[in-house]
UniProtKB/TrEMBL annotation:
Gene3D superfamilies: Electron Transport, Fmn-binding Protein, Chain A (2.30.110.10)
Pfam family, any one: Flavin_Reduct
InterPro entries assigned to the protein according to its UniProt record, in alphabetical order: Flavin_Rdtase-like_dom (IPR002563), NADH-dep_flavin_reductase (IPR050268), Split_barrel_FMN-bd (IPR012349)
Domain Flavin reductase like: 19-163
Top-level division of the source organism's lineage: Bacteria
Provenance organism: Pararhizobium polonicum
Protein name: Flavin oxidoreductase
Family of the protein in this entry: Belongs to the non-flavoprotein flavin reductase family.
Amino acid sequence: MAAAAEPSPIDARHFRTVLGSFPTGVVAITCVEASTTPVAMIVGSFTSVSLEPPLVSFLADRSSSTQARIRARGRFCANVLAADQERLCRTLAARGTDKFDGITWEQSPLGNPILPGIVSWIDCMVDDVIEIGDHYLIVGRVHALHTVTDKTPLLFLRGAYGDYFSNAALVLDRLMDWP
């Protein structure tokens, strides 16, 4: 059997475009540093890993100072953002230390921020961190979780935010060749 040929280099922009055609949920990962300073980052890679034990995970860029702070704290809360929370998403995704100015939040059982108006939250202790390429896969052991509302979650697709209904309508329009 012949050895597999080395893959051709993949253009980063093309890679992002192709992978961006798959919708992802938008989740705010939060924690509180020892100084009671709330910390947050936005991810589109949150997923369930295991039922027994209950594990979830997300990917974070290795260069992110926020992921380093979350890992150092050893716990986080995954806040599933609602479709009407794009502004909150953009605020928490911005660089800087004043992300939480004007944002009220409740404390999770582990002391992490639970954001207002979200769909659900999952409170975790960091269980494992695996370096993969230019990211860390951060695995959390679930300690508590709750569905807050039946609102539709915020999605990210093709470089834009939306929800299931607006994205479904866009797809249907294209399939039916409607204007």
